[in-house]
Amino acid sequence: MSFSRLSTLVALALAATQLVSAAVPKRVTCADGNVTANKACCALFPIVATIQEQLFDGAECGEEAHSALRLSFHDAIGFSIHGGKGGGADGSILAFNETETAFHANGGIDDITAGQFPVFQATGLTAGDFVHLAAAVGTANCPGAPRLQFMFGRPPPKAPAPDLTVPEPTDSVTAILARFADAGFNPQEVVALLSSHTIAAADVIDTSIPGTPFDSTVGTFDTQVFLEVLLKGTSFPDAGNTSHPGEVLSPLRGEMRLQSDFAISQDPRTACLWQEMINDQTRMQTQFKAAMAKLQVLGQDTRKLIDCSDVVPVPAPFKGPITFPASFSQKDVQQACRQIRFPSISTVAGPAPTLAPVPGS
Ligand code: HEM
């Protein structure tokens, strides 16, 4: 065999080896038996276990898991692509909680910062890593959720975020979209992020009814909230419910609709984006995952972060489809987007339900 033929063969063999190693993701087995893509992530598995045990009552999709997701938003949105509005996803809301929980838009956040603070201190993580890991883990406890990304290695926050970066439910759609655009998000990403309200309840909008859920399946990460925000009518006359600032009465007894969610569902800039989510679990999961991946590293130098997403538990799947709550149907939908067909959804049998508040609120 000539030398040039031999060297061609060697080159081909080498290239083939490289192709094979590029196709097989790198795996590291940690001392505790967990497997991850990067050795640096091994330290996180016991921290995830601690978070599950000490914050989320095992691995529940309850009030604390919901609040952990809300906290990651209120932390990260303290940021502007034009500068001067805070460090973004840096954990400042936890490290400087006395300052940031005093902001009006952070009403109710003090419960979760108080709950997370001692656990955060015991783990040795930076505040940013802790807040955004806890959010990814808490969300994973909710069936139907996408498995969120987790990037590891945020430096400690330098200062609290300034006030007035977090949107309020009383804000106009124009103001909300402008605030999100200032942080780098387009209207499609805003609607995607609002999927979070499928595992949400309000404590401070109406303090007389804490834990009032935003949809009838508050323990499941499904598209039910996108449907129920569109249901016409106010609450039952005998429910004794009165509207508070930031709230639009819901026709479902025991449910609250946020004024901002309702306005976004009806606005020509966002109504079709809202409607397209209904009963499209894959679309909602994909878009929410992508928007959260962006949110959770706002203001961070991602070249310095390590992808430790494989420490996040795999969420249970959603066993859909979604349904109209009993006694509701297509005739009750306040449809603002006429350009696309409304999905066909069946109704649960039985009398109209009364939703229970989320325990622990
Ligand atoms: C237009 C933007 C938004 C507004 C005006 C808004 C407003 C609110 C309000 C008023 C509450 C209830 C607070 C209470 O009374 O206790 C709430 C709850 C919640 N929000 Fe949002 N939100 C927005 C966007 C988001 C985003 C982007 C996320 C996450 C990615 C998020 C996650 C949550 C969660 C998970 C809860 C429930 C917390 C719990 O049940 O403990 N929100 N939101």
From TrEMBL:
Record domain Plant heme peroxidase family profile: where: 125-341
Subcellular location: Secreted
Alphabetical list of InterPro entries matching this protein: Ccp1-like, Haem_peroxidase, Haem_peroxidase_sf, Ligninase, Ligninase_C, Peroxidases_AS, Peroxidases_heam-ligand_BS
Single GO MF descriptor: peroxidase activity
TM stretches of this protein: none
Co-factor binding comment: Binds 1 heme b (iron(II)-protoporphyrin IX) group per subunit.
S-S pairs: C30-C42, C41-C308, C61-C142, C272-C337
Signal sequence segment: 1-22
Record-listed E.C. numbers: 1.11.1.-
GO cellular component: extracellular region
Residue numbers annotated as active site: H74 (proton acceptor)
Top-level division of the source organism's lineage: Eukaryota
Site feature: Transition state stabilizer: R70
Alphabetically ordered keywords of this record: Calcium, Disulfide bond, Glycoprotein, Heme, Hydrogen peroxide, Iron, Metal-binding, Oxidoreductase, Peroxidase, Secreted, Signal
Residues involved in Ca(2+) 2 binding: T198, D215, T217, D222
CDD domains according to UniProt: ligninase
Cofactor(s) of this protein: heme b; Ca(2+)
Residues that hold Ca(2+) 1 according to the record: D75, G88, D90, S92
Biological processes per GO annotation: cellular response to oxidative stress; hydrogen peroxide catabolic process; response to reactive oxygen species
Enzyme class: oxidoreductase
Binding site for heme b: H197
Protein family according to the UniProt entry: Belongs to the peroxidase family. Ligninase subfamily.
Name this protein carries in UniProt: Peroxidase
